Amino acid sequence: MEFVNRLKQLQGSMNDAEFSRKTGVGVQTLKRYETGSSPSIEIAARIADAFDVSLDWLCAREGQWQAQSQIMVSLAEVPPSEFITVPRYDVQASAGAGAINFHEMPSSVIAFDRVFLRDLGAVPEQCLIVEAKGDSMQPTIPDGSLLVVDQSQRQVDHGCIYVFRVGNRLLVKRARWRMDGKLELTSDNLLGGYPIEVFGPSDIDDIDVAGRVVYFSRVP
């Protein structure tokens, strides 16, 4: 039960929903650990990474598991049925003004709890992962964060964050609709001097919505 005790120590005063969001693990999955269930190495590593603690400390098994900031699994491996392997593409969605395209094949995959992704409003089978590059979305999204993007959410809602393809650029921006029907792609870094890109009905076809950002994880 040492794992449960350390899990409670990390949770502290957080409620279950807050703890789930921080760790990327569904509430029901976390509850099962309280009854004695053991976590997979992917889940344990995700919790350890979220709180910047060692995997050995969390699991109280010094020397048995190797701590890693992110646990990647081979494309050929199949996780337990409660998990889904989300493909990670070796590209960067610029939180500035970079020019990068998707490669055809993902570089790796990361296992996620299906329930956790559904709780975020995402379709697990339609999610992918890219990296955010730059500081224009700080403090909301730090440079180097991994973005979970739901490709099923292509209808642009006011105030939400999306990954957009604009020409040969891949951008992560907050979308804002104006009263005149024009779409603004804005940055959260108000002090960075990043320009607002505005698209009207005549040039809206220049934008392709890759998907909505439903979750992001800081990479140490």
Task: List its traits.
434 Repressor (Amino-terminal Domain), 220 residues, 2 domains, 22% helix, Umud Fragment, subunit A, alpha+beta, single chain
Describe the protein in words.
The chain is an alpha+beta fold. It has two domains: 2-59, lambda repressor-like DNA-binding domains (434 Repressor (Amino-terminal Domain)); 83-217, Umud Fragment, subunit A, CATH 2.10.109. Helices cover 22% and strands 29% of the residues. The protein is built from six helices and nine strands, in the order H-H-H-H-H-E-E-H-E-E-E-E-E-E-E. Strands 2-1-3-4-9-5-6-7-8 form a nine-stranded mixed sheet. Strand 6 and strand 7 form a beta hairpin. The model is unreliable at 61-79 and 97-101 (pLDDT under 50).
